[in-house]
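Backbone-to-sequence.
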């Protein structure tokens, strides 16, 4: 496994593979790797001839400076995990390498970015759009792999790829969970043991809400009960708990159980602070 720090180095290396008609798979990450990231890597290894993982904690997508400062960084362990997983290249650039000058680029993702994460993390998806475009230009992958856990991110990147005609296929990988259902996330490392126990509330609430909905309960009633449950828990603060159309992310106020639902047509999405750690999760229904 080769670790490369500059755009030029990785460009040159990948050019050799491209000239030899090898396909390139890219797994973009911010490091502090876990089994969720590895499932993206495994998928990439099954499809692509050459697998590249990028590790870059992208400052422009952090709306909260404390979140950036406290974001877990475990590069040495990450590299060991990637080597064991058979990754070919790790792109590990510095902030100066990725942003030789501050980026003034502004994307407008319209309705896709005004709800859910976009509403609570102003500027977040602009930063994601900028860095993912840069990575696509630098690596020129045939396929790029993203996790279902970041549902809105996937919708936004899909839209960006279409609008900017990036020649890349996107693969979305299901959310990998801990045994108790908590979605694996780098930020989970910041939870203390009490917070860790409590954090299973996200997944349990999603499953409970889905079951209530299918038992005929109105969505408004479900939302009220969920909000009450979180209010009773001093360590938790609910930011949103919404039912959306999975493709457009349009927030809806219910589903028609009498109609023929397509698999994954709707999703329930949530963001919750557990202590000062902000976690997200979603459940397709
Ligand atoms: N539990 C998971 N299962 C599958 N994919 C995941 C999981 N967690 C993250 N990913 C995906 O891995 C990629 C890199 O994500 P990232 O490095 O931000 O990790 P993360 O665990 O989502 O961290 P955090 O949400 O705390 O920033 C993204 O495409 C993300 O959706
Ligand atoms: C796609 C990404 C690597 C861009 O920084 C990040 O948003 C993430 O890890 O999901
Ligand atoms: N996986 C999402 C990256 C972020 O929270 O900034």
């Amino acid at each position: 496994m080769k670790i490369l720090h500059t755009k030029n180095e990785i460009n040159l290396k990948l050019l050799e593979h491209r000239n030899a008609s090898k396909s390139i798979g890219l797994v973009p990450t911010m490091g502090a790797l876990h089994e969720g990231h590895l499932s993206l890597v495994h998928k990439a290894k099954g499809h692509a001839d050459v697998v590249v993982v990028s590790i870059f904690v992208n400052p422009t997508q952090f709306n909260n400076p404390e979140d950036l400062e406290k974001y877990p960084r475990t590069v040495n362990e990450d590299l060991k995990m990637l080597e064991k997983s058979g990754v070919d290249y790790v792109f590990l650039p510095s902030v100066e390498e990725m942003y030789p000058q501050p980026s003034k680029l502004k994307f407008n993702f319209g309705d896709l970015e005004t709800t859910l994460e976009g509403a609570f993390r102003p500027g977040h998806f602009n930063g994601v759009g900028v860095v993912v475009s840069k990575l696509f230009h630098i690596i020129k992958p045939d396929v790029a792999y993203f996790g279902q856990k970041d549902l809105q991110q996937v919708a936004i990147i899909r839209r960006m790829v279409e609008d900017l005609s990036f020649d890349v296929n996107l693969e979305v990988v299901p959310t990998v969970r801990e045994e108790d259902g908590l979605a694996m996330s780098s930020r989970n490392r910041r939870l203390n043991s009490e917070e860790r126990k409590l954090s299973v509330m996200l997944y349990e609430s999603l499953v409970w809400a889905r079951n209530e909905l299918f038992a005929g309960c109105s969505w408004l009633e479900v939302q009220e009960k969920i909000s009450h449950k979180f209010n009773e828990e001093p360590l938790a603060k609910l930011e949103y708990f919404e039912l959306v159309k999975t493709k457009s992310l349009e927030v809806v106020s219910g589903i028609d159980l009498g109609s023929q639902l397509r698999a994954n047509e709707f999703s329930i999405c949530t963001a919750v602070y557990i202590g000062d750690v902000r976690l997200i999760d979603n459940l397709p229904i």
